[in-house]
């Protein structure tokens, strides 16, 4: 009832787009469910990593080590979930259908929620500091209202801050004043007309203003990881199309093409398992950092490896396309070429897995430590937002490429026939964009000052 008739919708029909189209109300239902799922994920992803990191005592001498290991373990858990999704869930879907696959996931989520709430008495809770978005809005509104006020006027008393050692925000230490973004200081500009009990929409504390400044300073770093998310999104579609033309057999075992994206997850799992025994000791000797590399260095390593990954993808796709043409497969793009194995794709998959480990884990730890005390979840939300923007950016880029490269016959770089299309050119374009993005990151990281 909720899905189109799939009785005559085999793999070939699906690839050629000959399956029965969904009705309008079915699409509305699908998008409603997807957006509800996205809404739930938006509540979980920024908060779960921050909440987990809150369990460690900042005063402990091993705090940094515990925090570093937690974020690695956290991403290891996320990767394990992705591996199960691309293997076990795919198997359930192929054998028992989509309904059973989604039902299995719903039951797993229910068990997960039950376990989470069962542990509530054991958790360490950070004091709630109120809505961070409200405090940001108050600073912006107050600074706009006093945009014409001068720091040298006779009405100027000073920059407002509550007395004592604690700030006015629960769970937050006082943050000293900085000289960046002077226009935001207008929000803390205390004038005689403000009175004794001014509204927070007219006068904010220095700490509150500095919170907003920190959030602004952080933006360039996660923004530079949008490109990595874009590349990952392209891999999930382009690499699967490549795999349809290649031999996916391991001796007598044939792997489903839909399982190919599991290999980045496996490489992430392996690298995270070896991270402390191999990478940290080697890089510690080079950098002198007890953790092997700083957070921004790890993000930079990840972005650099992603460039190598997408460059290799371009090289292999160029070879695969010429091989298909030379061996008579140019217009037979749904037939696997028996002598060209799909496991050449593992190189780009493993490289992008390495990039994820360094970039995403380093980014999560960086944002958690650098975000204001009462805004830790906002810092983690930056990473999730960058991931989402990468998916949107991939769609926009593909639409631009299709429109710009379409010829009179309707063919483009992203033609349905991968052997007449030019996926390799798209990979080269991604390589160029990734390199430019890496240069921007180096400039942003060089300017950034750790708190």
Determine the fraction of residues in helical runs and give it as a percent range. Answer: 55-70%
Rg computed from alpha carbons, rounded to a whole number of angstroms: 26 Å
User: What distance lies between the first and last C-alpha atoms, to the nearest angstrom?
Assistant: 56 Å
Assigned CATH architecture of the largest domain: Up-down Bundle
The CATH topology of the largest domain is: Growth Hormone, Chain: A
Count of helical segments? 13
Uncertain regions: pLDDT < 50 for 5+ in a row? none
- In CATH terms, the superfamily of the largest domain is MFS general substrate transporter like domains
Domains (count): 3
Number of strands: 6
Q: Average pLDDT across residues? A: 81
Strand portion, in percent? Answer: under 5%
Q: How do the strands line up in the largest sheet?
A: 1-2
Order of helices and strands: HHHHHEEHHHEEEHHEHHH
Task: Give the overall shape, derived from the CA principal axes.
Answer: elongated
Please state the structural category. mainly alpha
Task: Characterize the biggest β-sheet.
Answer: 2 strands, antiparallel
By CATH reckoning, the class of the largest domain would read Mainly Alpha
Protein name: Major facilitator superfamily protein
Subcellular location: Membrane
Main location: membrane
GO cellular component, one term: membrane
């Amino acid at each position: 009832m909720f899905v189109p008739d799939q009785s005559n919708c085999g793999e070939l029909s699906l690839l050629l787009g000959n399956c029965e189209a969904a009705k309008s109300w079915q699409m509305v239902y699908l998008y409603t469910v997807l957006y509800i799922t996205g809404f739930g994920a938006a509540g979980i992803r920024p908060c779960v990593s921050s909440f987990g990191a809150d369990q460690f005592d900042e005063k402990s001498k091993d705090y940094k080590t515990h925090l570093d290991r937690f974020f690695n373990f956290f991403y290891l858990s996320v990767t394990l979930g992705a591996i199960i999704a691309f293997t076990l869930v795919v198997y359930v879907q192929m054998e028992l259908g989509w309904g059973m696959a989604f039902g299995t996931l719903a039951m797993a989520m229910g068990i997960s929620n039950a376990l989470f709430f069962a542990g509530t008495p054991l958790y360490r809770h950070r004091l709630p500091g109120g809505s961070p978005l409200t405090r940001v809005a108050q600073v912006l509104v107050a600074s706009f209202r006093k945009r014409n006020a001068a720091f040298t006027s006779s009405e100027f008393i000073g920059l407002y801050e509550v007395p004592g050692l604690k700030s006015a925000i629960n769970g937050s230490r006082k943050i000293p004043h900085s000289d960046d973004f002077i226009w935001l200081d207008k929000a803390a500009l205390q004038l005689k007309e403000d009175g004794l009990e001014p509204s927070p929409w007219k006068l904010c504390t220095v700490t509150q203003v500095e919170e907003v400044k920190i959030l602004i300073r952080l933006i360039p770093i996660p923004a530079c990881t949008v490109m990595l998310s874009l590349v990952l999104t392209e891999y999930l579609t382009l690499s699967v199309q490549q795999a349809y033309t290649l031999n996916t057999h391991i001796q007598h075992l044939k792997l489903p093409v839909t399982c190919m994206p599991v290999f980045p997850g496996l490489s992430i799992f392996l690298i995270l398992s070896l991270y402390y025994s191999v990478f940290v000791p080697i890089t510690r000797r080079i950098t002198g950092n007890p953790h092997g590399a700083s957070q921004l260095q790890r993000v930079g390593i990840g972005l650099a490896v992603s460039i190598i990954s997408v460059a290799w993808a371009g090289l292999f796709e160029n070879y695969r396309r010429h091989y298909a043409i030379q061996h008579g497969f140019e217009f037979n793009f749904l037939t696997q070429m028996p002598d060209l194995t799909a496991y050449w794709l593992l190189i780009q998959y493993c490289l992008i897995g390495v990039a994820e480990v360094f970039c995403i884990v380093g980014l999560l730890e960086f944002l958690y430590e650098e975000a204001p005390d009462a805004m830790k979840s906002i810092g983690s939300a930056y990473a999730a937002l960058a991931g989402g923007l990468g998916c949107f950016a991939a769609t926009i880029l593909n639409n631009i490429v299709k429109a710009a490269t379409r010829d009179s016959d309707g063919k483009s770089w992203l033609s349905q026939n991968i052997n007449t299309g030019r996926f390799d050119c798209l990979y080269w374009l991604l390589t160029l964009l990734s390199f430019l993005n890496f240069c921007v990151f180096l400039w942003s990281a060089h300017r950034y000052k750790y708190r």
